[in-house]
Amino acid sequence: MSTMFTLLKIEGKLVWKGIDILIFGICFPVILAALFGYVLSRDASAGSSDFELSYAAVITIGVLATGVMGLPLTIADYRHRGILKRFQVTPVSPLQILFAQGIIQLSSALVSFMGVTLVYYLLFDYQIAGSWFIFLSVYAFVVLAMYSIGTFIGSVVPDQKAANMWSSIAYFTMLLFSGATIPYEVMPRFVQWIMDILPLSHGIHLLKLVSTGRETEGMTVPFLILGIVTGVSLIGAFKFFKWK
Amino acid sequence: MVLKVGNLTVTYGQKKAVDLISFEVKPGQAFGLLGANGAGKSSTIAAVLGIEKSTYDELVIVGKSPIRNRKEIFEQVGVQFQETHFQDKLTVSDACEQWRSLYKQTADLPALLQTFGLADKEQQPVKLLSGGERQRLAVLLALIPEPKLVFLDELTTGLDTKARRMLWKQLVTRKEKGLAIVLTSHYMDEVEALCDEILILREGQTVFHGTIQEALVASGKTTLEDAYLHFAGEEDWG
């Protein structure tokens, strides 16, 4: 127990000393939330307003930054530097230090979630239409999917350079083309086709449905797609993972 | 015996990196694994520690198997790998605290920091330490569990004379108290200062195994360096 506590404390310090997560995972989505509040239409005559729909998208940015950037970069870095190898010759499994990192990254994503939610609620009187319980369950599912993808990237890349490249590709593609920043609805049809391939688009679609109280509408397909992505990523990560 | 290795073999694809090596280490004994780069020293250590796949007739560390009893073994065994890297932005005190948290019983940290000359560097990021200081930290961490056996892979490569002597002195003191040491080195003065027994590897095979005195006699040379070159087959170079 005290081992895990110390690992969390020290890995936490290391993560917060690097300001990447603060900028990409927390400041950026909070600022975007504030901008959306001023810019997006709050006309709800056609069901839900653009602003209401944007909430589900902006809360995933923190998940994306920590899960698809922070996590794989750390896994690749710790393997490349031989840190995992050093843990292999102690009584503690190297998995514990990766687990500690995962928890720290996840806690940053939750801070981001709370920051964005506070902006929507306090500055712009937003309220989700559906049930919080279902909404949080879907959010947890999206977190699981994104962290699986991140773990997969961290496990298969041969070195630090490849980790940087692939996690950047995954991060920026999903940031721009899954509706996290630019809403799915305003994209031209052919871009939407591309967006339909990206797993986060389905995650955001699910979150939009549950945040606007339309839980029953067509959730099966996105659920299946995210589930398959999660399964394949985890199996792949497990199969290709190397300690050194 | 703290360590028993019987007919250890490590194979990479078709190539045998380590071929049927056997040796034993007693408490208070220092054992030197010597050989040119790529002779199989680090592969031997990795295989003995159970982090490299190998075949063997016998592999026992502090009475147990490193494959099946890894948790118990590594409570009593310290390891310093060739070139130790740390997490970016980690400070000396954080590195020590993290390492201490991994073990049930640990050595007195302030005393260790004092003896290794790192007491005033505690708040420094590891990245900003000099090569010698970082290496001393790596050895210090290997000694944190108060091990019975310690593996030191290229103990003083890249260190200045003063730092090397200081490390040797620390290790000799601990050896006298019963610490067993397995080390690899390219420096014969280091081997003479520390090792009771040596094993010279050439392309994964044992070409000599015995005491330094025996190496001199068997090779017919007057210095260990010449004897080493004789066995390691590096003589013809120059």
Structure write-up:
The complex is a heterodimer of chains A (244) and B (238). With 244 residues, chain A is an all-alpha fold. Chain A has one domain (2-240). Helices cover 78% and strands 0% of the residues of chain A. Chain B has 238 residues and is α/β, with parallel strands linked by helices. Chain B has 2 domains: 3-76 and 149-237, 3-Layer(aba) Sandwich (Rossmann fold); 88-146, no CATH class. Helix content of chain B is 34%, strand content 24%. A 6-stranded mixed β-sheet of chain B has the order 5-6-7-3-8-9, with helices on both faces. In chain B, strands 2-1-4 form a 3-stranded antiparallel β-sheet. In chain B, strand 6 (149-153), helix 6 (161-176) and strand 7 form a beta-alpha-beta unit. In chain B, helix 8 crosses helix 9. The N and C termini of chain B lie far apart (40 Å). The A-B interface holds A 2-3, 5-7, 10-11, 13-14, 17-18, 77-78, 81-83, 85-92, 243-244 and B 49, 51, 70-72, 74-75, 77, 79, 81, 83-90, 94, 97-104.
Summarize the helices and strands and which ones pair or pack.
The complex is a heterodimer of chains A (244) and B (238).
Chain A: H1 2-17, H2 20-39, H3 50-80, H4 83-88, H5 94-124, H6 132-156, H7 160-177, H8 189-197, H9 199-211, H10 220-240
Helix pairs in contact in A: 1-5, 2-3, 2-5, 3-5, 3-6, 3-7, 3-9, 6-9, 6-10, 9-10
Chain B: E1 3-12, E2 15-25, E3 30-35, H1 41-48, E4 58-61, H2 70-73, E5 77-80, H3 92-100, H4 109-115, H5 131-143, E6 149-153, H6 161-176, E7 180-184, H7 188-194, E8 197-202, E9 205-210, H8 212-219, H9 224-232
Parallel strand pairs in B: 3-7, 3-8, 5-6, 6-7
Antiparallel strand pairs in B: 1-2, 1-4, 8-9
